Amino acid sequence: MIGWFKHLRTAFGASFLWLVCLIYFTQGFRSFVWTAVSYQLKDNLKLSPSASQFVTSIAFFPWSIKPLYGILSDCFPIRGRKRVPYLTLATLLSLLPWLVLGLSAFLRNTRIELMILLTAQNLGSAMADVVIDAMIAEAVRFERTSFAGDLQSISWLSMAFGGICGSLLGGYALINLQIDKIFLLFSVLPALQLFSCGLVDEGSVQGKAFPEGSASNGSDMMSGIIDEEKFSSEKSKISTLRRKKSQKYTKKAPTLENKLQAPDKKGPSLSPWYQSLKMATYTLFRAFHQPAILRPMAWFFLAHVTVPNLSTVMFYYQTEFLKLEASFLGTARVLGWLSLMIGTLTYNRYLKKMRLRYILMFTQVGVALLTVLDMVLVSRANVLLGISDKVTVLCGSALSDGINQFKFMPFLILSGQLCPPGVEGTLFALFMSINNLGSTVGSFVGAGLASVLNISSGSFDNLFLGIGIQVLCTFIPVAFLFLIPKEATGISA
């Protein structure tokens, strides 16, 4: 393990490797402070479950527009640098809201101001996530490609370790510290991240033939899209017609490239950045317009928006009706992280050769069964069976994240298969944003359902009905599995 880490440090530099580990650890450790946010909304602001879920859904919206951050850093360097300045800006956005919330009782206890600050904080975290992913991709490409898997592995381990630490310490911190102190304590991590940004060197893009580089990149992206169209057409029953269409695009591609890269006569000073932005935007929409990409992403989006998310309502139920302590819920979340890791290993060992349609269908059934476990908890049937509430909650936490990973892993694999060469980073960020946007919309739907059923703090009479509706909705995505490529498996192409 130590030798492996030394090899990575030699290949990429100690400061860069430290920054990668710190950022991913901080992303996982966010559970420490967001547990405090949940209690702040419930206990201090006295929000209903639906209102609390609405606030958190708005606050997490910046994670749904991640491609914008990638295009921004790709096309508009700051003082000749494309990554470190944006990472510094993102870190400041991650740091300042926690400092403000820790020092200002008024902003901390006002719904609108709190929501704005939390949204700004998520904007910084999402932007940092995009930028560090781009820096990892560039480091692997320019240093040693053989270290790609190792660098991704250490990133994952750092985030998982951060998640376990944050979940363990978050509940205990709430017992022993005031919420404002928790906000200030967490701000230490983005402060360290801000300091670490100054230790990483980044070459300037000034003085380079930018239009030529842009042209080359545009050519790679365009050819990647055309190759993807050819690949899709060869597997179609109407391959001849599709191939003619692909050849048609091939003939037109140079004309489109030249047109996109032609200098802007009206504004020559803006031409390099404008042409780069125009090429990136066009290529992104051109790639995503393909049915082979659009249809699977539509399924993953539907899988979220058609199922109401009642997680915040269940948090209220567990803390107010069942009287479960914050420390216990933190321990349950640790089991969720461990389950996620086990789910990943199980998928890689036993399921990656199975067709994705089958995996996703069984996953939806598994999620429905676990949701029934919530119905058992709410109906108090577990007490009649002699099973305590804590054991029931622990079983749900231990299984839910692992089963959901069986859906997330196919999403990652399929996203990697669908990305044409040259647009992997931006298109993958778009795929992740679609997934995040679907989760956000699902939270809005859950908040709306809780409001319609009059589920509020201290009034959970209709919660059983709400969970029953959630169970039925879980089977809706199964009817749309035809959107997933029939022959797709979990083995990367």
UniProtKB/TrEMBL annotation:
SUPFAM superfamilies: MFS general substrate transporter
Keyword Transmembrane among record annotations: yes
Record's keyword annotation contains Transport: yes
Coiled-coil portions: none
Cleavable signal peptide: none
Entry-linked Pfam families: BT1
Membrane-crossing residue ranges in chain numbering: 12-34, 54-72, 84-106, 153-175, 298-317, 329-347, 359-378, 437-457, 463-484
InterPro entries according to UniProt: BT1 (IPR039309), FBT (IPR004324), MFS_trans_sf (IPR036259)
Source species, domain of life: Eukaryota
Keywords: Membrane, Transmembrane, Transmembrane helix, Transport
Compartments reported by the entry: Membrane
Membrane topology: Multi-pass membrane protein
PANTHER family: FOLATE-BIOPTERIN TRANSPORTER 1, CHLOROPLASTIC, FOLATE-BIOPTERIN TRANSPORTER 4-RELATED
Homology family: Belongs to the major facilitator superfamily. Folate-biopterin transporter (TC 2.A.71) family.
Protein name as annotated: Folate-biopterin transporter 4
Organism: Datura stramonium (Jimsonweed)
